[in-house]
């Protein structure tokens, strides 16, 4: 029996550097997971290949996918749809390969509902580590600015709730290493490994 | 406030290569955790330093440690006691450093009771991955031998129950990398990280 792959979801506040971390991860030759190709209604740019860069769809085809629940998550930006086709994800997981999604926090919420067993990684802004200093240096900031920062920090904290892991994006290389370590560790979890042995021994 | 370190417990069936993996881990310059020095009643060998190789104790002093519950775990081999002083472990964890223990499965059970929050890693023999083949190649083995192997596999499986992670020792370098990845991942767990932020925001 083929063991299923892991669904890895990297998300976090906008501007945190998700795309940069994803590109760095996939530029490394030892990365063994598959990047999930998105579907879009945007026109292909020169050199873009259907099924590699995106699955290019008409608006009608995309809306049909929405209606038929064929998207793990989707959103509309500047008049174009972007989404994650569930078929590709399921097929790749069934082949025993780990699938990597890099999506917005709204999308991550949608994915969690359909794949509660996914591995949800919150990419945290590097500034969070400096938050304590920034907040507690009193007298140098107006009370209003401190309040504003506290509110932003609390909002980010609430977004974290949904996630299994928090990776600080202090340095892109370090953030990548952490993401890859998390995937290695998850593959070693006893529940995951033991199930395989148990099944094997039951069969015999 | 200093965040506490992780207690990392590497154990597994005897002969699996725990010592080899531990030595490899501590030979790597980027290893950031502390090796827990054992106490023993064995006489120091030439070159061995008290507090570095072992804490050398008299039999009376060791038995007093047992009575005073000052050992995380202990056992007697060939007329000498060996054990893990709890003071060193607590002190090092309190300093925010990760502590690494390499111990026998019996000792791991004792540690789990005192440190349920520890990170328990089961080092599995490389043969486990070949088990399926070995068991299912029929006709080439006596029924008795197959039964014997099934029993051994089931016993190992039961020993795994106590652990959070299972690391296969197929290659020492790979096993080390997995152990270190598990520690990196555990430091990124949301419960661990979020607590820190929450505490920080409450204080202010």
From TrEMBL, chains A, B:
It catalyses: GMP + ATP = GDP + ADP. One of its GO terms (cellular component) is cytosol. ATP binds at residues 12-19. InterPro entries: GK/Ca_channel_bsu, Guanylate_kin-like_dom, Guanylate_kinase, Guanylate_kinase_CS, P-loop_NTPase. It comes from the Bacteria. The keyword Mitochondrion does not apply. Its EC number is 2.7.4.8. It holds the Pfam family Guanylate_kin. CDD domains: GMPK. One of its GO terms (molecular function) is ATP binding. Residues 5-184 form the Guanylate kinase-like domain. Keywords: ATP-binding, Cytoplasm, Kinase, Nucleotide-binding, Transferase. It is found in: Cytoplasm. Belongs to the guanylate kinase family. Essential for recycling GMP and indirectly, cGMP. PANTHER family: GUANYLATE KINASE, GUANYLATE KINASE-RELATED. This is Guanylate kinase. It comes from Mesobacillus persicus.
